[in-house]
Amino acid sequence: MTATETALDRYITFMGRAAHDTALLDDLSSIFAVDATVAMGTPEVVAGLDAITEFYRGFYAGAGDSKHFWTTTVLDDGTLKAHFIVAGRNPDGSLMARSGIEHATVNDDGLITSLTVTFTGALDN
């Protein structure tokens, strides 16, 4: 965890917990604005809190145990950027790792309005 908590830090922490307790996904309104968008390493954009919630339900349906590490920077324009790595074990016992960069914009209420994830590396065995 970083010394200063931003909305992006809250998101990454929340998602790390949701991997172990998917019931937490019912509270994504504490992280995302109602009209937020998420682009998770693909050109497709998930728009709106309900669609985002369903997206993460599907994302975590086949997830195993994992651990996130990251550093967050507040850019000059007020947007947030986090470099991250996540490593874990898939439900079948195989190992996985991902690295990437997340960019987020945040509204005045401290909720994410736009999240873009770009994966920069992967390991699956």
From TrEMBL:
Q: Which InterPro entries does the entry link to?
A: NTF2-like_dom_sf, SnoaL-like
Q: Which domain of life is it from?
A: Bacteria
The segment(s) forming the SnoaL-like domain are 25-114
Any Pfam family the entry gives? SnoaL_2
Instruction: Kindly provide the name given to this protein in its UniProt entry.
Output: SnoaL-like domain-containing protein
Q: Which organism is it from?
A: Paractinoplanes atraurantiacus
Q: What's the source species' lineage?
A: Bacteria, Bacillati, Actinomycetota, Actinomycetes, Micromonosporales
